[in-house]
Amino acid sequence: MSHLCRCDAGYVGPMFEVRIHGRGGQGVVTAAELLSLAAFEEGRHAQAIPSFGSERTGAPVVAYCRISDEPIRTREPVLFPDALVVQDATLLQSIDVFGGLKPDGYVLINSKKNFDELGLTDLLEGRPEGRVMTIPATDIAREYIGRPVPNAVLLGGLAALTGAFRTESVADGLNRKFAGKVAEGNIAAAQHAYDLVKWYLNEAKEPEHV
Q1: What DSSP assignment string belongs to 111-141?
Q2: pTM for this prediction
Q3: How far is Cα 30 from Cα 50, in angstroms, rounded to an integer?
Q4: Which of 66, 112, 119, 145 makes a 20 to 30 Å CA pair with 44?
């Protein structure tokens, strides 16, 4: 089992709901904010909802984002996400990160391991091909940013995996959130992840490692 199962189309729907799982210090809440900024850059409605409870370093954190072409009236947590982003794979053994995931939902996990190694082959059963992937987002972040903060990397990968928003919009959001070399590094990291995921989606042959 490789890191990717192929898919043939991106997300199409009235509202795109994302739930982001990670640990304190990994920029989980910032990821939701950046995703909402990307949607705003496209002239769409968006809503970022931070988690409640402890955000101390290492503690589990969850945040939510909704994107829609129409005004968003609900403010409840995302219980049935169209996409899940898992910023720390160690959470897979401690909490049910996949709870409520829609049958055709997308999953992007920060890990060097594939689904066999993570024990997630059951997640693929009955799911459209190409909706779940792992990428080494922390390693990419270290290369481009110099810090193990994978949030922007995973947003770039999610843009490619789902087609729900553009990587250029992620870059615009990063420029609004950060400045100078911090913004440049995050944009480069997000673009690397986007290109990597697109390459996998377009290649018939899948290499053993990302």
Answers
A1: -SS-HHHHT-HHHHTTSPTT-EEEE-HHHHH
A2: 0.88
A3: 9
A4: 145
